[in-house]
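Task: sequence in, structure out. Protein: Xanthine dehydrogenase accessory factor.
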Amino acid sequence: MDNLDVRVLRCLRDWRQAGRHALLATVVRTWGSSPRPIGSIMALADDGAVVGSVSGGCIEDDLIARYTGATSATDAPALPAGPTGFVKYGITADEAHRFGLPCGGTLELLLERDPDLTRLQALVEALDAGRLMRRTVRLADGQVMLDEAATPEALRLDDVSLVNTFGPEYRMLLIGAGQLTEYLATMALFNGFAVTVCDPREEYRGGWRVPGAAVTGEMPDDVVRAFRADRRSCVLALTHDPKLDDMALLEALGTEAFYVGAIGSRRNNEARRERLFTHFGQTPDSLARLRGPIGIYIGSKTPSEIAVSVMAEVLAVKNGVTLPRDVDVAQAKQAREKDVGGPGETLPDGWAGRVCGA
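Result:
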């Protein structure tokens, strides 16, 4: 599944390219609770087609009804008539309830009528090329300026302009094409990541069943170098084979990837760190970014549950959320062993190296 913002902009471009009228709505302010964060966007076509969202659905329904000329609430906020304009929802408790906003919630949207096709094409092309772009809208007349941004920025709004930053898709590189990888790739695609799976072992690669993920049989360290991980990328080693995982992790640690980690038990991860210290000249500082055992502790044992725990940790790191120590796999298992006076539950022979890690 594409990054949602990119998908909205692509669809908006296609509508305008086909000569259709369309509206771009951006959440620019919120008060109290809000269903969607500031910067969220939605595109609405003249026939009522919609992509993206600015609320839980009720505001979208009202915008669709009024933009297409259908009936809507008589006391709903008036739509602006010019090329750009603001509209607020949830000013009163009754209105907040009607539009499905949380208690005390109010949000304000900037509406842009018929955004310029040339600028939309340029923006989508830049995003498809992996560039981070800054879009500035002049409020007086809706004119748009584009320039490349060095880092992601929060939405900015003043009396003259709106500035919003759009980034390319987040990317995930998975080393190994086993069952856990299939579950994790599916979740990553659902969450808007572009997924690449690398496994030189034909017996694993041949049974791959997840559409939408790119699959390669090249050696993992070569793939990591070609992947050119940036701050919107993550690399996860899932094979349990040091010959495949270790070199890939070494390459990934030299990049700006926001997340680098490997599956495995606490013992396996300690052994991996020892190998990297002893044979590859790594130091505690150089390995500080290496995560393992990966995932958050939810007592998971099956590949599908472990994928949930790993995806949750990846998303937390992506979103800048510091997880409490009691959900860290190693810390949680150590605490559990201390509480029960011995090691936690054992897994059937042969499973410890395959699914442990969450």
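Residues 343-358 have pLDDT under 50 and may be disordered.
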